[in-house]
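Proteins fold reproducibly. Take a sample protein:
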Amino acid sequence: MVRGTVKPAACGRLSDALRAFIADAAFPCVGAKGALAHDAIQIQEYGALGSRANDAPLLRALTGFAAFVEQRPSDDATLHSFAAVFAGPLATDERRFEALLWAQLQRLHDLDVRAGSRWASDVSDDPADAHFSLSLAGQPLFVVGLHPGASRQARRFGWPALVFNPHRQFQRLRADGRYEKLQAAIRPRDVDLQGSINPNLADFGQASEARQYSGRAVEPGWQCPLRVRKGR
């Protein structure tokens, strides 16, 4: 069980399904597997992705998660994630899911600004910038979207889900040399599963990570729909 300010993960059917999805031998992300093994993935269940009823509860949960991450000791080597699993919709193609994902992130951002949060100072707030990362409750977050219609099998989960990963933990991995080792372990597994590397993969500072959030292979000229609002 995750300790600290974060509430225990929900014990519902969708949460169990996500744990099983990550634990499956074919799932390529060894970082997520490690987090699961350390019980470091907080999972919460919500109504259909796109419902505004999810917005405030999800932002509260992410704010608690951000506080929990900030309280971790500096030498904490465990990877932590927060996963929001949604009851539907179950019949979305990649473009529809992408639209729902960015609409959800936009509403979370708008609420976050109204709550007085400012963008994390160590990442860019320009979605086109190679150093962009989503920021909520002052915490930079890398978002991984999962859904039934994903073309990448590693993203093809039975329900829509958004997995929020603290960006700073990746920076720590880069600083101590573990990131390259993790990447080297994941990419061959992804090839084994899919037959190819995800064409949207890029290291931070090479291209905006916003291109990776939905999992769709976006076009070279794709523009992120997020409209960043300046806080007070």
The helical segments are 13-23, 30-37, 55-71, 94-114, 167-175, 178-194. The chain has one domain: 13-212. Confidence is low (pLDDT under 50) at residues 1-10. The chain is about 35% helix and 10% strand.
